[in-house]
């Protein structure tokens, strides 16, 4: 029945308990909920591993859903989120699970970033790393933690700490490319290689290092093709459209419009309608700037028709469509 213990607290799905804690905070406040949380964690015979996961989800759900946050005040909400991440970290330390420790620290980074306390986040990180690893050199310590390094690199990236993120992503790409492993072991290492190259490329792009950024995006395309060939794509959010679009963007920023056209076409033809208009707008602008006026005019007319028919929706990047149109008409004297 629905009242069975297994239905109320399914061991393969801890979302119910995490959600119960959050709604209790909203209804009764954190002091009452603190007692409920302790009861929940300690009285239901959850394993230590499950305690880590429940507590992590309490923090993560509140962090990713504003409507689940109990206060009107951002600082108070973030303090509460950080408190639950720290609780989860303490359980993960008991497990000596480096992967879960870093997963929680990554969430904590994002929380501090929300209130512009990036420096405090780094101080917290290095204190924890000294306790865990014996020094601030975390590579040898964390590489035994599964994808802990990848999670940490992603956290540094979200914190805009590109120096630390670059060191880790470069280490991970070097490891994948130099690995003498074969079969499943090698496939596991290279499954996210396109993601690592994409992040390296984005950090260079944001620092206006267009040549280096482009080389990383091109390497990402090669890695993705290899993973697709062996059905080994772990994270499909970095696809051909995204990589080709970023290569085109690098060429565009360098005023190399003929190559920008080439790669915006690649991006346009490698996506469905949800992303096509973004790519078509930049393709049309690049064609115009490369003096391919007839083709540019046809493509801008397609975009204007799409815009006039009210087909733009949440999946479109509004700025990426309207800005090229504005530049085109401004250049033509139509603004």
Helix content: over 70%
Low-confidence stretches: none
Structural class: mainly alpha
Average pLDDT reading? 84
Q: Give the SSE order as H and E letters.
A: HHHHHHHHHHHHHHHHHH
**Sheet bearing the most strands, described?**
none
Outline of this structure?
The protein is mainly α and 335 residues long. It has helices at 5-8, 15-28, 30-43, 48-64, 74-95, 98-114, 118-133, 139-142, 148-158, 162-178, 183-190, 193-206, 210-229, 240-253, 257-269, 273-289, 293-308, 318-332. The chain is globular and about 70 Å long.
Features:
335 residues; mainly alpha; 18 helices; globular
Description:
This protein is an all-alpha fold and 335 residues long. Helices cover 76% and strands 0% of the residues. The chain contains 18 helices and no strands. Helix 2 packs across helix 4, helix 6 runs parallel beside helix 9 and helix 12 packs antiparallel against helix 13. The longest helix has 22 residues.
Q: How do the strands and helices of this protein lay out in sequence?
A:
Elements: H1 5-8, H2 15-28, H3 30-43, H4 48-64, H5 74-95, H6 98-114, H7 118-133, H8 139-142, H9 148-158, H10 162-178, H11 183-190, H12 193-206, H13 210-229, H14 240-253, H15 257-269, H16 273-289, H17 293-308, H18 318-332
Helix pairs in contact: 2-3, 2-4, 4-5, 4-6, 5-6, 6-7, 6-9, 9-10, 10-12, 12-13, 13-14, 14-15, 15-16, 16-17, 16-18
């Amino acid at each position: 029945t629905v009242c069975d213990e297994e239905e109320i607290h399914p061991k393969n799905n801890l979302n119910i308990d995490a959600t119960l804690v959050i709604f209790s905070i909203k209804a009764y406040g954190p002091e009452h909920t603190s007692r409920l949380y302790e009861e929940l964690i300690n009285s239901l015979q959850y394993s230590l591993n499950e305690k880590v996961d429940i507590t992590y989800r309490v923090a993560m759900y509140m962090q990713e859903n504003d409507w689940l946050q109990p206060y009107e005040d951002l600082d108070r909400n973030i303090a509460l989120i950080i408190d639950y991440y720290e609780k989860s970290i303490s359980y993960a330390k008991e497990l000596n699970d480096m992967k879960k420790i870093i997963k929680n620290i990554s969430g904590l980074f994002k929380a501090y970033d929300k209130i512009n306390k990036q420096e405090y986040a780094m101080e917290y990180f290095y204190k924890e790393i000294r306790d865990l690893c014996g020094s601030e050199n975390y590579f040898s310590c964390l590489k035994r933690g599964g994808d802990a390094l990848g999670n940490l690199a992603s956290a540094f990236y979200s914190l805009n700490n590109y120096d630390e993120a670059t060191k880790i992503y470069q280490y991970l790409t070097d490891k994948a490319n130099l690995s003498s492993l074969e079969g499943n072991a090698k496939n596991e290492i290279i499954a996210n290689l396109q993601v690592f190259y994409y992040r390296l490329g984005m950090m260079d792009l944001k620092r206006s290092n267009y040549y280096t950024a482009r080389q990383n995006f091109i390497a990402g395309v090669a890695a993705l093709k290899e993973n697709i060939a062996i059905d080994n794509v772990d994270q499909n959010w970095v696809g051909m459209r995204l990589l080709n679009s970023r290569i085109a963007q690098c060429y565009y920023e360098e005023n190399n419009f003929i190559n920008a056209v080439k790669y915006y076409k690649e991006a346009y033809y490698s996506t469905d309608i949800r992303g096509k208009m973004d790519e078509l707008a930049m393709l049309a602008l690049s064609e115009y700037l490369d003096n391919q006026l007839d083709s540019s005019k046809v493509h801008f007319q397609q975009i204007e028709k799409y815009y006039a028919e009210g087909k733009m929706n949440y999946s479109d990047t509004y700025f990426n469509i309207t800005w090229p149109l504005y530049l085109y008409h401004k250049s033509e004297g139509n603004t």
